[in-house]
Protein 1
Amino acid sequence: MHELSIAAAVVESAEEVAREHGAASVESVQLRIGELAGVVSDALRFSFELVADGTLAAGAELLIEEVPARARCTGCDAEFAVGSPPRLWCPRCEQPAAELLTGRELELSGVQLPEAGSCPALHEAGRGERT
Ligand SMILES: [Zn+2]
């Protein structure tokens, strides 16, 4: 299953970030997924919960930002929404000459750690100085 392997990679990256910061858990994970990336958000959410179980990312919220697919016509420079299923067809010059600008993203854009765990040193230092 496609989404399961993506979820495994996401959990792995989130755990890495948590470990780097000495956090015992992960609050949320943000993903940017293009319209044409071929990922089913619901399936990914489900897979994420499965894979995250028993890891540092267990119980973390999966925030998915869907990126609409856009293309640019190489002939007239017009930008247009591609839609899904994709149609790489310039609406202005009616030619199939277009390059895809966005829509194939599949990236981890952020990992939020619980505040106390993300940077305990800073937390301690700030305590005395606050009035
Ligand atoms: Zn055009």
Protein 2
Amino acid sequence: MIISIFGLGYVGCVGMGCMAQSGHTVIGVDVAPEKVERINSGKATIVEKDIDELIANAHALKLIRATHDYKEAVLHSDISFLCVGTPSTDKGHLNLDYIYQTAKEIGEALEEKSTFHVVVIRSTVLPGTNDKLSAIIEKFSGKVRDIDFAVVSNPEFLREGTAVADYMNPPLTVLGSSCSKAIHIMQELYKNTNSPIEVVAVEVAELIKYVNNSYHALKVVFANEVGSVCKQLGVDSHEVMRIFCMDKQLNISPYYFKPGFAYGGSCLPKDLKALNTLAHDLYMETPVLNAIDDSNVKHLNRVVQMIEHTQKRKIGVLGLSFKAGTDDMRNSPIVSIIENLSGKGCEVRIYDKNVALSRLIGKNKSVITEKLPHLNSMLQDSLHSVLAWAEVLVVANKEDEFKTLVLSDNQIVIDLVRIPELEKQKNYKGLCW
Ligand SMILES: NC(=O)c1ccc[n+]([C@@H]2O[C@H](COP(=O)([O-])OP(=O)(O)OC[C@H]3O[C@@H](n4cnc5c(N)ncnc54)[C@H](O)[C@@H]3O)[C@@H](O)[C@H]2O)c1
């Protein structure tokens, strides 16, 4: 294929070298004259392992060249990759000026083109940019999106320092577009990539890079805070984190990564508090570790707000223990929500088959009758009676029997755990999805 690349910085230069190595012809476009000159003399525009050789080889094979003439580049290519910078504004917002300028240029060029053209956003952009880019191209070309051209969001995951290796072996390739023809063209382009190709909604493709990088930053500061506490205690932090990373079931895994209800139970709140108190006693500032509980409380507040917004007062809570299949109510986050709602004058009735059972057999009796006597009076032994009475149903754990709730059209379900079967209910509200 013949590909044009707008922006010959880190992403554009690496993309140019790697695509040429796969046998494609690449035309680079940049507003910086020195970058155009460097490519045209077979030199990379960046300092990066292996890139000098890739660019020199591709140049010798006449597979690459660069120009300032954006029209010529678009008219002679099938796909245009946008790799221009997306810096922050002074106030911290995303500055998309370069992206929109490039969209205008591509639009002007497409006015003169009669064949289908794919525009690929490689730069890191927030949700909504794909749509806005398409609108700008439509305006300047007079063409119609998804018929004459299409925009594909295809975020770049490379890291500087290992950019060529990362480009060649990405963890995955993410594609989002409203046009299936463009997706097929991109799948063909990436067919030799040795990693999964995920076709997702455009907004998912646009947002994922921000989620990735925010998480990577969180990993760095988490490890550094743990390391700093370890150092004060005379414990080898690298050994602690080596062992931490060996747990592929709970630590380095998808577990705990589904947006859902707040954490609770007998261990997480207690042990987090102990580590934070230890750091405090060592006169250490660990703001990330400290903020975890605060974030959890804010999440609980969102649940209370959602229930308040219904303006209903008869609230049925399904699930009292901190997760399905247990009767353990120690630090169950739903308990604080129930207490909050009761304090605001709501009438609450609760159903949890495990808690009801343990109350009957006396196992959890003291917790319920002594520590939570007010909850005892709200507990119902029958799911049916709560369903028949409540105006709002708050589903707080994933007990199987909650999948098949039969509700009337004016009952509202607030799902804190995402039970897919419930999503088809008429008045369904997911907590954070
Ligand atoms: N650098 C990374 O490691 C990395 C990794 C993944 C994604 N990204 C994202 O990719 C994008 C590009 O990053 P980068 O580090 O390669 O940026 P960069 O600043 O190194 O390169 C951007 C290039 O775009 C050129 N440019 C600006 N306006 C232009 C226009 N109208 N026409 C043609 N060229 C134009 C600039 O002259 C510059 O050479 C950003 O959105 C960035 O967030 C970067």
